Amino acid sequence: MNPVSTPLWQILFAAANPGVFLPALAIGWFCRSLRLALPAALAFAALRFWLEVTGPQMQGFAPEPLALPIAVLTPFLLTLAVFALRRWTRGKQAAAPRSIGPRLVHAMLGVPLGFGAGFVFGLVIGTVVVAVGGFGSSRAGAADIVGFAFILPGMLLGPFIGAVLGWFYPFGLGRKPAPMPPAAAHGAPPADAAITPGWHLAGIATPSDRILIGGLDPWQYPWRTLNLPPIIVAHPQYPVQRHRMTAYAMDLDRSSVLFAAGEFSKGVFGFYQRDPDATG
To answer: Which of 1, 77, 236, 251 has a CA that sits 20 to 30 A from residue 18's CA?
Structure first.
């Protein structure tokens, strides 16, 4: 039995075809909205369908009923998967240094690391699939299947994924900011200290809790201390107590999220945001 005539091989061949995944990477990555990504994915799938129907058949290739659906669904799903990856990474850009230089260096380091990882993963997964599926009538035929269907796509996809991870996560996933100075370092304000106007409580959290400030989790982003006077707030549960908060910013590529934070007690932080109509 010719191994390329089996449905499993056709699925693997369609997913590993550079003419499928390379355009899917480009289309999905550069589409800025779902309104663009969805018709682009459909158009790419239609093009692949037309090429499958009108293109020359491989010698000895026996088409299966699943061949055409696979030829359409593979580019469509790959394009949308890359688009989803791009949408997910956009919100993570602040986790990298603001300057382009360090991000570019780490992205370049990710290319050879991804190349090596793609080779290893392709070799391991390809060997397992060929051994389990019984593909290849000879050792040379099995090696060709592993090389072209698994190792080659891994070596092409690996550098791309490595560069993306190096650009957005140069120092590792989930990097936390430096420890905040405790409120006691500034001295506790007197009980009759005036509360700073224009700020409201956004939440109370420990470093293990998830809290959103302007749609961002502050535990996942570097904090930049702002040159602003301390913000005096009342304890949410004990209003007679006063606490000093420090103003910080979480920087994205083209914007910053302003907030104030400080410790109410050891390991328990209060987060404050500016009122929408606040001035000054």
So the answer is: 1
* Buried/exposed 136-162: b ≥16 CB within 10 Å, e otherwise: beeeeebeebbeebbbbbbbbbbbbbb
Note the pLDDT of residue 246.
Answer: 93
Sign of CA dihedral 159, 164, 170, 172: negative
Is residue 256 within 8 A of residue 249, CB to CB? The reply is yes
pLDDT (tens digit per residue) in 107-135: 888 888 888 887 887 778 778 777 776 66
Six-digit token pair at 154? Answer: 């891994």
3-state secondary structure of 263: strand
Check residue 184 and report its DSSP letter.
G
Q: Which of 49-58, 94-103, 178-187 has the highest mean pLDDT?
A: 49-58
In one letter, which amino acid is 94?
Answer: A
* 8 Å CB contact between 272 and 261: yes
Mean pLDDT of 162-190: 57
Please report the beta strands in the chain, taking only residues with DSSP state E, as ranges in sequence order. Answer: 199-205, 224-225, 231-234, 242-251, 256-265, 268-274
Given the DSSP bridges, would you call strands 268-274 and 231-234 parallel, antiparallel or unpaired?
A: unpaired
Instruction: Answer yes or no: are the C-beta atoms of 186 and 244 closer than 8 Å.
Output: yes
